[in-house]
């Protein structure tokens, strides 16, 4: 399973003056310390529980003598609570628990809004969520769940990520087409190579297999169309040879002659020369 890496989150610490003697202040400090220790231990779920309780308790304190201590506690809670949610999200994503990860990233954004944390923004949370979608899509693709992979990566709106997944899917179909072609199962080879071209319109290999398979199925017009696209992407003696043969079979000797003349591979030249005697008149 693909691991999604997220930056380690900064640790916020607070130096608290314990000069305030009021019992309620001591309780708030104790509650905050519990949350802080949980945060340091990366027990983020417990940290959230304790820090939220500390923040609520601190907000209720009205003793002016404790103002500096209370403000310090609140300031740290404002940072540590949203980052705890974000840390949990990162861990869940790394474990492949993508839906839960996205939920916690959204919770981190909600907490940032609630506590006034300006470091965690909608923009950077969306970036992390898109990373999760990309990782989830990659897992779907590796498991052969291509429709889910495309649907998921499309949520990112990232053209590069979408293109990467589409090319992976295309390569998977191409591999199946090659296997079918070797087994002389040309119908399957045509189906799979056609699917490959739908996900990667720049795969000359897919168009070559598609064209050759159509020729074997005596669908010469389709063969010509596929092989013309193949040579437009990348010229090769093999592609020109099969294109010429497809034109010849479809009755277009002029085009067949034109393409046989472009075959410069020693392995194919003899056959090409022999066919030219037939079509180049």
Description:
This protein has 281 residues and is mainly alpha-helical. It has a domain at 23-125. It is 75% helix and 0% strand. The chain has helices spanning 23-40, 44-60, 67-94, 98-115, 122-142, 146-154, 159-182, 186-199, 204-216, 220-233, 237-249, 253-260, 266-279. It is rod-shaped and about 105 Å long. Residues 1-22 have low confidence and may be disordered.
Main sheet attributes: strand count, strand direction, barrel closure: none
Q: What's the helix-strand series? A: HHHHHHHHHHHHH
Oligomeric assembly: single chain
How would you describe the shape? rod-shaped
Radius of gyration: 32 Å
Q: Count of helices?
A: 13
Number of strands: 0
Percent range for helical residues? over 70%
As a percent range, the share of strand residues is under 5%
Instruction: Quote the distance from N terminus to C terminus.
Output: 61 Å
Secondary structure category? mainly alpha
Enumerate the spans where pLDDT stays under 50 for 5 or more consecutive residues.
1-22
Q: Averaged pLDDT, please?
A: 91
Keywords:
0% strand; mainly alpha; disordered N terminus; 281 residues
Structure described in brief:
With 281 residues, the chain is mostly helical. The chain is 75% helix and 0% strand.
């Amino acid at each position: 399973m693909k691991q999604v890496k997220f930056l380690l989150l900064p640790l916020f610490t607070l130096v608290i003056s314990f000069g305030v003697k009021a019992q309620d202040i001591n309780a708030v400090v104790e509650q905050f310390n519990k949350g802080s220790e949980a945060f340091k231990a990366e027990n983020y779920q417990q940290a959230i529980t304790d820090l939220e309780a500390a923040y609520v308790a601190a907000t209720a304190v009205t003793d002016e003598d404790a103002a500096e201590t209370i403000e310090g506690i609140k300031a740290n809670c404002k940072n540590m609570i949203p980052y705890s949610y974000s840390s949990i999200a990162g861990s869940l994503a790394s474990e492949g628990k993508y839906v839960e990860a996205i939920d916690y990233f959204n919770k981190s954004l909600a907490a940032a809004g609630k506590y006034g944390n300006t470091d965690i923004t909608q923009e950077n949370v969306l970036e992390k969520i898109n990373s999760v979608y990309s990782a989830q899509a990659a897992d779907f693709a590796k498991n052969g769940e291509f429709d889910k992979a495309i649907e998921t990566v499309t949520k990112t709106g990232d053209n590069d990520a979408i293109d990467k997944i589409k090319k992976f899917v295309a390569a998977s179909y191409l591999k199946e087409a090659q296997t079918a072609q070797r087994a002389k199962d040309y119908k399957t080879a045509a189906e799979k190579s056609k699917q490959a071209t739908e996900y990667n319109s720049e795969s000359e290999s897919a168009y070559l297999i598609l064209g050759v398979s159509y020729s074997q199925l005596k669908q010469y017009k389709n063969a010509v169309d596929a092989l013309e696209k193949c040579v437009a992407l990348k010229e090769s003696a093999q592609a020109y040879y099969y294109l010429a043969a497809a034109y010849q079979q479809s009755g277009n000797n002029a085009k067949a002659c034109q393409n046989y003349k472009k075959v410069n591979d020693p392995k194919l030249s003899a056959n090409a020369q022999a066919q030219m005697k037939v079509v180049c008149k």
